[in-house]
Amino acid sequence: MPTAKVNGAEIYYGEAGSGPPVILSAGGLQGTMAGYEPVMEELSREHRVISYDRRFGGQSRSPLVVQTWDMVCQDVMGLMDALGIEEAYLGGGSFGAAISFGCAVRYPERVRAIFPSNIAGGVICDSYLAMKLFKSADMALDQGIKAAVDAFDTADRFSPFTPERAQYDPGYRKTLEDMDPHDFAQVMRDTIYALFEGPYLSLGMTEKTLKGIRIPTMIMPGNNDIHPRGVAQQVHRLIPNCKWAEVAPHSEAPGEYVRRVVKFLAEVEANT
Hints:
Helices cover 43% and strands 14% of the residues. It is of the alpha/beta class.
């Protein structure tokens, strides 16, 4: 798979098909494109579909810097620039849904429509993600950065946050472990404030920003503590002319997810 230089990072991405571009952003603090493998082939029958490892996930590479909502949205635009894409449809689940919303607010001229799913938000969601960052900061200070990196486990949702690349790239791992533990911990703590300190209804989005979205939107709700149905319902009420699709996440019902997304994108195409 190729990489693109984007905002000081090397973003690992995959693409398939041709037609109107679709960008899929993965969830989690360091989402990887592997989760979209079940839907890439079918979606790409009518669209050029791009998914990518976010800058701290999978095979992407980035200096350890504070994550902000501006940054994760700029990464999408930078990837589009690198691939020669002026305008695209954006989708994503959980944290990836928040990226879709954020791009729609910050770059409406480059986003044709969004179809976020598994809308994340609420006190349990924010506390869970902040816990992973606090855990990494505390472990680095108490036991050293190596201990925090060693404790990373994709199978354990409560493991501390550290860039996944450090698990298989010795050079990148050494760069992390050579950092001053206090600097490492400060990046983690500053990221908490950057991502979660605000009157957010859903991740990164206030009621005001959601009301300001004017591009075609279809949301697909979640149904657990991290992705509360009630948050999705409030988002649906706030975004003007927002569509609601009762569809399970792409990881659970890929065929149904693709059919509903393709139908929505065709409707948008027909009206533009």
